[in-house]
Amino acid sequence: MAIDNITLSRIDTLHPKIRQEVKDIYLNEVVPTLTNITCRFAYTLRTFQEQDALYAQGRTKLFDSNGKKLGIVTKAKGGQSIHNYGLAFDIVLLVNGGASWDDVKDFDKDGKPDWMEVVNIYKRHGYTWGGDWKFKDSPHLEKSGYDWRTLLAKYNAGDFISGTKYVNI
Fold this sequence. Notes:
Helices cover 32% and strands 14% of the residues. By secondary structure, it is an alpha+beta fold. It has a domain at 5-46 and 81-156: 2-Layer Sandwich (Muramoyl-pentapeptide Carboxypeptidase, domain 2). Strands 1, 2, 3, 4 and 5 form a 5-stranded antiparallel β-sheet that branches.
């Protein structure tokens, strides 16, 4: 059982409406489920600018700083991702000091793919998994029931929780 403090700090950036729920699920269900493995939230809240930079990869930004060709990683521009509103997170498994995005490996040998154990926990609580989409995004989980167009309209209208940049939902 390994609690990841980086994950806890990233959870604190999620939308206030889901923050405690996500944290409770992580601490009470995800952490106890994994043996000798840590689930880390790689990304949570993402700014519009960060989203636009990801969108540029493989389109207008073709190579990284080392000259490696970049592929397309997202179909969402700034404002079009649920991450931009703190209602999504991406996971990675930490195993033996390294990161794994393998969604079929059973590292803890309990007969179930560890990635899917985490995914299924969140799906039971009303989260949508990007691995179920046509454009697969296996690390991605988002709170179901929110549409980026509605959230963007609220953002553009300045419909925020008082004193924050989180839209009212």
